[in-house]
């Protein structure tokens, strides 16, 4: 999940690509390149978001351990 | 003066009525020195307060007992409570609602004083608030590992954004030791290099939440370099920690919601972007196709124009060429002679005996030169 910082970058890059493409000023090769990059970023962002298990660690005595939820009162 | 005979209970009820209906003895503030403290297993606390001459039995019932103060022998305290009667022992006593160490103001006063002081120092200023990362990869969660708060936060993260990694840093969030525990957890979390710190605790009384109103906790929050979201108590509870943190949420669940984006929303946005990308490309194609059509028809027009122009030029030239047509001259009776394929214009080009080819308007002649005469240019 070190990718999540990257996710932010990716999303803003996709937005940038969209506005560049909508200007339509670029040549065909450039336009195609932008499109492919955009689609690639969309897929990779979707992949990053596809993780379904929340990872929870507990810091105990300076060490990260798996967290086992306990029942208890407030 | 009165010959009636009363039962013990009757007289006790009467005394109780006298004391408990007396406004002066209700919500009364009393100060004194604590002795004979018993923290009973039931959760109630029994003790006596005394001064030089007198002593007063006190009972501090469980719902009112606060954990931020531990009564000890000889402690000087300020108390608020009602004078009541305990019929089984025929004793009057103080039913304590609030208690604080003498010299230390009430919790409300302390809260207000600290709030004023930190406000003056600028600890609550908006310019000190750090932005909360939109897409955190790691979050530190500081709370009790057994409370409802930890469950609420984890559930919210699981539901909204399981992409995130949560590191739970267990802390004591109530009573004595809470302050040091929270400060230590904050320092640890800040050193971990996480994206966001969540400091949360479920609801409780002012006393229960007191740790979040302590100066050291507030200053530690302020000095943390990691953005901190607080979610302490319920909607209406606002602690000093909430004022100084970078973002205040009303509950632990709300804190988690502010800490992570919703994956569903993000995925929806992504797929709409995908569509937009495709549309952009299609639109580009359509535009370019149109431009291409225009260009090709302009090219066609240009070519047709060119051809017309050249055709006209050709006609002009051919007309001019026609003017030079030899046959017309021949028809007038002139002729052209050639010798050895060369047009003959001078007499000295030939000699006697040469064969002369002569082209007439109608046919050719072949003759032999019999005489040449020079001159007559």
Q: What does the model show?
A:
- The complex is a heterodimer of chains A (74) and B (377).
- Chain A has 74 residues and is α+β, with helices and mostly antiparallel strands.
- Chain A is built from two helices and two strands, in the order ααββ.
- Chain A has helices at residues 4-23, 28-48, and strands at residues 55-60, 63-66.
- A two-stranded antiparallel ribbon of chain A has the order 1-2.
- The longest helix of chain A has 21 residues, at 28-48.
- The mean pLDDT of chain A is 78.
- Chain B is an alpha/beta fold.
- Chain B folds into four domains: 8-104, OB fold (Dihydrolipoamide Acetyltransferase, E2P) (Beta Barrel); 109-261, Succinyl-CoA synthetase domains (Rossmann fold, 3-Layer(aba) Sandwich), CATH 3.40.50.261; 268-295; 328-368, no CATH class.
- Helices cover 38% and strands 23% of the residues of chain B.
- Chain B has helices at 8-20, 107-121, 148-160, 178-192, 215-223, 240-244, 252-259, 263-323, 326-331; strands at residues 28-39, 45-50, 55-60, 76-86, 91-101, 138-143, 165-170, 196-201, 228-232, 247-249, 336-339, 342-343, 355-359, 364-368.
- Chain B has a five-stranded mixed barrel. A five-stranded parallel beta sheet of chain B has the order 7-6-8-9-10, with helices on both faces. Chain B has a four-stranded antiparallel beta sheet with strand order 12-11-13-14, with no helix packed on it.
- The longest helix of chain B is centred in the last third of the chain and has 61 residues, at 263-323.
- Chain B is rod-shaped.
- Chain B starts with 7 loop residues before the first helix and ends in a 9-residue tail after the last strand.
- The interface between A and B is large, with 44 and 48 residues.
- Strand 1 (55-60) of chain A pairs parallel with strand 7 (165-170) of chain B.
């Amino acid at each position: 999940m070190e990718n999540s910082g990257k996710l932010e970058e990716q999303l803003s890059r996709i937005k940038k690509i969209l506005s560049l493409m909508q200007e339509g000023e670029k040549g065909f090769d450039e336009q195609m390149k932008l499109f492919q990059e955009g689609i690639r970023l969309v897929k990779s962002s979707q992949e990053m978001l596809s993780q379904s298990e929340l990872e929870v660690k507990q810091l105990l005595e300076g060490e990260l351990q798996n967290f086992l939820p306990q029942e208890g009162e407030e | 003066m009165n010959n009636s005979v009363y039962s013990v209970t009757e007289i006790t009820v009467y005394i109780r009525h006298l004391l408990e209906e007396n406004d002066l003895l209700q919500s009364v503030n009393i100060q004194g020195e604590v002795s004979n403290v018993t923290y009973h297993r039931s959760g109630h606390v029994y003790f006596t307060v005394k001064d030089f001459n007198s002593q007063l039995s006190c009972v501090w019932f469980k719902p009112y007992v606060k954990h931020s103060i531990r009564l000890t022998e000889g402690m000087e305290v300020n108390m608020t409570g009602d004078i009541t009667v305990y019929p089984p022992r025929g004793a009057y006593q103080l039913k304590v609602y609030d208690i604080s160490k003498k010299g230390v103001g009430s919790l409300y006063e302390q809260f207000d004083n600290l709030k004023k002081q930190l406000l003056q120092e600028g600890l609550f200023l908006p310019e000190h608030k750090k932005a909360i990362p939109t897409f955190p990869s790691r979050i530190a969660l500081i709370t009790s590992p057994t409370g409802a708060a930890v469950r609420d936060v984890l559930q919210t993260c699981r539901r909204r954004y399981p992409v995130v990694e949560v590191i739970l840093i267990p802390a004591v969030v109530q009573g004595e030791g809470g302050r040091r525990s929270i400060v230590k957890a904050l320092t640890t979390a800040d050193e971990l290099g996480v994206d966001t710190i969540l400091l949360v605790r479920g609801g409780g009384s002012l006393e229960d939440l007191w740790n979040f109103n302590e100066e050291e906790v507030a200053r530690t929050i302020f000095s943390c370099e990691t953005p901190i979201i607080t979610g302490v108590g319920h909607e209406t509870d606002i602690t000093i920690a909430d004022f100084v943190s970078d973002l205040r949420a009303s509950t632990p669940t709300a804190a988690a919601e502010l800490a992570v984006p919703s994956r569903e929303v993000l995925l929806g946005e992504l797929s709409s972007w995908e569509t937009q990308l495709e549309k952009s490309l299609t639109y580009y194609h359509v535009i370019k196709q149109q431009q291409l059509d225009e260009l090709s028809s302009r090219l066609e027009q240009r070519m047709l124009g060119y051809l017309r122009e050249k055709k006209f030029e050709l006609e002009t030239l051919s007309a001019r060429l026609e003017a030079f047509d030899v046959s017309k001259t021949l028809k007038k009776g002139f002729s052209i002679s050639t010798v050895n394929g060369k047009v003959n214009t001078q007499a000295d080009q030939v000699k006697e005996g040469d064969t002369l080819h002569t082209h007439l308007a109608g046919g050719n002649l072949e003759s032999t030169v019999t005489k040449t005469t020079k001159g007559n240019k």
